[in-house]
Write a structure and sequence with these properties.
2 copies of one chain form a homodimer.
Chain A (H helix, E strand, L loop, with lengths): L10 H18 L6 H6 L5 H7 L3 H22 L5 H12 L7 H12 L5 H28 L7 H22 L3 H18 L3
């Protein structure tokens, strides 16, 4: 990034750019995504897009960086107060209808598959994952402290949930398998019932 | 395929072509894989490669089709007789050292991410998955019949194991995360102990 845009675009512009990126990924997939296809979805000028993000890679890293905020915001605004309700709400969101956004999920798996080749993608995915794992582990820890959950290892529980969610998303996309989410939801519920809950 | 090669290459040639495909995928990844890069790894003539497989896509479908045979052969030749031992051996193989073959696993995730775009890939992945699910479910069913396992739904158990294995593989590749396999192995063992085994 050039010096002038180090702090990033103002929030409203940033949101419009992220929305345009989402639409362009849905429409073109990752392989055919360019700054031009993103600009086509952006209401403002193409030069404004280039002013804020030098390359497609810069933009996609910023885009991936918004995922976690959206998930955390959604959990915070869900009607969930106890650790058990908050954990359920988080699992719901992790497994929420990828079929409903399957073009986007398809593009996202392509993007994830590029992490071994593009270090900036990997770093952002790793950062997201560490935060998400910490977010879930904090919920589990609260539940352990409150006596709602058994004396489990919160990080280990978070990792198991994330492995299941990752597997379900990948299978849904690769196999076009509607059942993967339901199977996984049942597996996560069984895991939480038998390994996490105190009762 | 042309009429002359409908039955496919003889076993030894087929094995050499599949070995060459594996090496080319490791070396070049999926995006840069061509019939030429595969031919470079093939001891025999390039024309023989083209004689047996018209396109890279044909060849990769055949390549993916060999995965399951290898897994089943490995389980059959493992020192595992009881359903419990056979289930353990299968999980071991599903989760075996992807880090040791990480270039190949990286290429394989790229290939899987193309399933929504290339129907022939999706069909082969779906076929593999159905066979693998059936293979695992049969082991579980044998265990239920023998009284080693509780009265579980064999297909549901197989799906849960496959979701966990898929998630672990994807996370290992995307995050370069050595721990994903260990975490998953512990989660699968916990799942089998508490949900599958009769004792």
């Amino acid at each position: 990034m050039s010096e002038s845009n180090e702090s990033g675009p103002p929030p409203e512009t940033r949101q419009q750019i992220m929305d345009a990126t989402y639409e362009a990924l849905r429409e073109h997939g990752y392989a055919d995504l360019t700054m031009e296809t993103i600009a086509d979805e952006f209401e403002k000028s193409q030069s404004l897009l280039h002013y804020h993000y030098d390359t497609k890679q810069d933009l996609l890293v910023a885009f991936v960086g918004t995922f976690l905020d959206r998930l955390v915001d959604a959990v915070e605004s869900a009607d969930a107060d106890t650790p058990r309700e908050r954990l359920d709400a988080t699992v719901d969101l992790l497994l929420s209808d990828p079929e409903a956004h399957s073009d986007f999920q398809t593009a996202l798996l392509e993007l994830r598959s590029q992490a071994p080749y593009v270090e900036a993608y990997r770093e952002q995915f790793v950062e997201n994952d560490a935060h998400l794992r910490g977010f879930i582990a904090d919920i589990v820890r609260d539940g352990v402290d409150a006596g709602d959950f058994a004396d489990v290892d919160p990080t280990r529980v978070a990792e198991t949930i994330l492995v299941l969610a990752e597997g379900a998303r990948t299978r849904t996309i690769v196999f076009d398998d509607d059942d993967a989410i339901d199977t996984t939801r049942a597996a996560v519920d069984g895991f939480i019932r038998s390994h996490v809950r105190a009762d």
